[in-house]
Amino acid sequence: MATRVDSLVIDGNRPGELARFWAELLGWTITHVQDDEVGVGAPGDDGLDLVFGTVPEVKDPAVKNRVHLDLASTSPEDQAATVGRALALGARKHDIGQGAVPWQVLVDPEGNEFCVLEPRPGYTTTEALAAVVIDSRDPLAQASFWAEAAGWRIANQEPGIVGLRAPTGRGPWLEFLRVDEPKAGKNRLHLDVAPFADGDTAAEADRLCGLGARRIDIGQGAVPWEVLVDPEGNEFCVLSPR
Fold first, then answer.
1. Cα–Cα distance between 58 and 182 in angstroms, integer?
2. pLDDT confidence of residue 46
């Protein structure tokens, strides 16, 4: 049995507005609208869908998200155009102490940080979304755990960053970036994984707990999914088989 990445969930106070921002910026499609969540689908079968959920808590602008998105570009002109489009849609440029770097740091309309990268050879097959980046105190250990949870393989390993790639070799990377700060508070962005159609949610949650995850209670009540945290405390869900 195994699990695979299903989606990236982004908490928001106005999920509909946030979903429209990201759909327009990425050129993706809104796939479903419910009272408490809105889905945005990647083109084709190689992407990672985004799900925008409703939470009452407002993001603290003084606290940087531990998970953020990196957007790809094909040229300096394309990078500038993406930044301009993001600003027109409601993003803002943001200073996190990055200094003089070739990428642009912005925040979306609810204050979630993201980067628009300069052209890089490693992101030529990712389409608009280059990577989901997760801060980590031990990138290799985290990547090793998530290779089991996501069903992806370690495809890049450097001293400060380790990247996972989907079996198809397309779509965004899942990258673990070395930081010194430990996790504090609940993440506003988290991954959901799901067993295959013949799998079992509880059994897969048990398997991942055996690899270093643990179950947690965030007030989810009686739901058909399991809520866990990975070895560094990042929340994620094991959904029903699909």
1. 21
2. 67
DSSP letter string over 66-85? SEEEEE--SSHHHHHHHHHH
Sign (positive/negative) of CA torsion 52, 206, 2, 141?
Answer: positive
- CA atoms of 162 and 92, how far apart (whole Å): 28
54: which residues sit within 8 A by CB, 6+ positions away?
11, 12, 13, 15, 36, 37
C-beta of residue 171 within 8 angstroms of C-beta of residue 26: no
Contact 22, 50 (CB under 8 A): yes
What are φ and ψ of residue 107, in 5° steps? -125, 145
Taken as a whole, the chain contains a residue count of: 242
* Cα dihedral 189→106→35→23 (10° resolution): -110
107-135 burial: b if 16+ Cβ within 10 Å, else e: bbbbbbbbbbbbeeebbeebbbbbbbbbb
CA distance 125 to 13: 33
Its pTM stands at: 0.96
Chain segment 53-105, per-residue pLDDT in tens: 999 999 999 999 999 999 999 999 999 999 999 999 999 999 999 999 999 99
Token digits for 56? 């009452």
